[in-house]
Structure prediction request, 316 residues.
Amino acid sequence: MFMHNKRLQYTVRVSEPNPVLASLMLEQFGGPDGELAAAMRYFTQGLADDDPGRKDLLLDIATEELSHLEVIGSIVAMLNKGVKAQLAEGAMEEAELYMSLTKGGDSHTQAILYGGGPALTNSSGVPWSGAYVDSRGDPTCDLRSNIAAESRAKIVYERLINITDDPGIKDALGFLMTREIAHQKSFEKALYTIENNFPPGKLPGLAQFASTYVNTSQGEGDATGAWNEGEQWERIDDVAGSIPLDGGSGDASVELGGSDAEVAAALMQRTASRPDYNPTTGADLGAGPGAGRMTDEDLGGAADMADATMISEPAE
Prediction:
């Protein structure tokens, strides 16, 4: 059960309307790292968690995220206040109203389609999606995802702060940004109160591969550090000479039953390529400047492919 308190968790003071800035602020309203995505992520996790401490934590933060959604939505609404009234009442000349709606960003869509209200879209007008909720139902996995989500949201708030000189908006965004820091701290504490929280899940990793570092991107820029060198790691630099890592053949195989084997063999025979056949194709017939070498051209000293390899009819 929810009860709505009409007072915002943090006071919103907007100096003047700015529809373009409003459209950018929507990134934290209906975007992938926005407040609605966070609220839904933590609600779904909390409802399914059997641990009483984590359940309480997740539902507390989920509910607070809804209050943050209200704060950022109020900023958007205040920034759109002027254009909403002008559009609704038609008080401005058509040209002036048109110019006010098309200053940049997605402001025209927000005004025309949503009447200046905060829409559940990101800053480009892409609708909010449940796909933003990336919970997996394992607490160690989900808490790490939550930590990352709070980190991303903090960075987005930093960028929004940097694009406005409105002191009231900066103040409110600074509060929201700081709450992301506090939530990250809570999630980290919750993660590390779980003993043996790494690796996620129940099954252990395969011991022979759990400490292997494979240096697959080689050349200028190769670097070493605690992430790939030292007593914790067995580093593989000769990648081609070391695969397959399991000591097998490195081929893919499957055991097929009688009828499957027969049908698979027939399919392979029917669709087999002929390396001895160089047919004339539509590209050959329609070739013009810039098409590159075609099958009926002299290759500069090589035997004419038309004479040497071209076969007009498949062999019997």
Q: What stands out?
A: The longest helix spans residues 52-79. The first strand starts at residue 212 and ends at 214. The beta strands are 212-214, 234-236. The two ends are 79 Å apart (CA to CA).
